[in-house]
From TrEMBL:
Source organism (scientific name): Verruconis gallopava
Keyword entries, A-Z: Hydrolase
Name used for this protein in its record: Isochorismatase-like domain-containing protein
InterPro entries: Isochorismatase-like_dom, Isochorismatase-like_hydrls, Isochorismatase-like_sf
Gene Ontology molecular function: hydrolase activity
UniProt entry tagged with the keyword Hydrolase: yes
Family statement drawn from the similarity comment of this UniProt entry: Belongs to the isochorismatase family.
Domain Isochorismatase-like: 185-297
Length: 317
């Protein structure tokens, strides 16, 4: 369907059925997709997206899902040089998180948090992604660490999910200098699974933030997904995604959410990856053309500011 008919009149459409249906409307070059459209809501949050269209959502039905911004993936104590994930953290802190708080959008911190029970059923395909342990030597009596491709890793002594990582040195920039026991790889309660220090003060359970553990790259995986249970219980249907890595844990969670019927928006400057840039770009392309919409942390902030100015409320800070 075109944006407007031959006479330039407004066009409207209902996409989907029942209470989850979207309401689309356009006039001229202005196009808007309204999620769970309710005409009784005077001031929905209206956000510009990468295609030039707008989306409208209800803040109380929305969540900002921040994925895997943990020490293991971002800390310089783990050898992580500054990269796209650190820039994403800054954009989340400056724009997306304060905007979400001011608008009443729930903030969900979705992180790896393994248990012994998880490890008993961990598939080899998932384990391999984080390296593994082997034995070498004439009598196979030497402990060796291998990467996901089977090459020897001589630069570390830990091997794979749940392995003891030993002690690490924390830099002054991250609260040191000091030494810490890094704990078991991506285990609940360990230092390496804790939030990256710049983000840690922004996790505020007293303000309604949720911390949700996952045991796969996708936080939506499985019939007993803690994330899905939380979203269903709180009737949250629109999800803004940020975190690391775009093409792995963020992307797989977003795709599963899309398949389950959630309204998905990728914050392209609120997520990053250590993969080549084309891997991130491919996710942006597929998200705006298939899985949902793409916008920025600043666009979310600006949309909330505009909404609050119409309501006469103070702007996010």
């Amino acid at each position: 369907m075109s944006d407007h008919d031959e006479d330039g009149h407004a066009v409207s459409a209902t996409i989907g059925r029942d209470e989850a249906a979207w309401h689309f409307e356009s006039k001229g070059n202005h196009r808007n997709f309204g999620f769970a459209y309710d005409p009784t809501i005077d001031c929905p949050l209206k956000i510009g997206v990468s295609t030039g269209a707008y989306i409208s959502t209800v803040s109380s039905q929305s969540a900002l899902v921040i994925i895997d911004m943990q020490n293991y993936f971002l800390s310089d104590a783990m050898g992580r040089a500054r990269g796209a994930g650190h820039v994403a953290a800054e954009n989340l802190i400056r724009y997306a998180i304060p905007a979400a708080r001011k608008a009443g959008i729930r903030i969900v911190w979705l992180n790896w948090g393994l248990t012994d029970e998880d490890m008993e059923t961990m598939p080899p395909a998932v384990s391999r992604c984080f390296g593994f342990v082997g034995r070498a030597g004439h009598h196979l009596d030497q402990h060796v660490v291998l990467d996901r491709h089977g090459f020897l890793r001589t630069d570390r002594t830990y091997g794979g999910l749940g392995s003891e990582m030993g002690r690490v040195t924390i830099s002054a920039a991250e609260g040191g200098p000091k030494e810490m026991d890094a704990g078991r790889l991506l285990y609940r309660g360990s230092w390496n699974a804790a939030l990256f220090p710049p983000l840690a003060p922004h996790y505020r359970p007293g303000e309604g933030d949720a911390w949700i553990h996952k045991n796969r790259m996708s936080g939506m995986w499985g019939s007993d997904s803690l994330l899905q249970k939380y979203l269903q219980h709180n009737r949250l249907t629109t999800l803004f995604f940020g975190g690391v890595n775009t093409d792995q844990c963020v992307g797989s969670t977003l795709m599963d959410a899309f398949s389950l019927g959630y309204n998905c928006i990728l914050l392209k400057d609120g997520c990053g990856t250590t993969s080549p840039q084309y891997a991130h770009d491919a996710w942006e392309f597929n998200c705006e053309n298939s899985f949902g919409f793409v916008t920025t942390c600043q666009s979310l902030w600006e949309a909330v500011s505009h909404q609050l100015s119409r309501d006469g409320s103070s702007q996010p800070s």
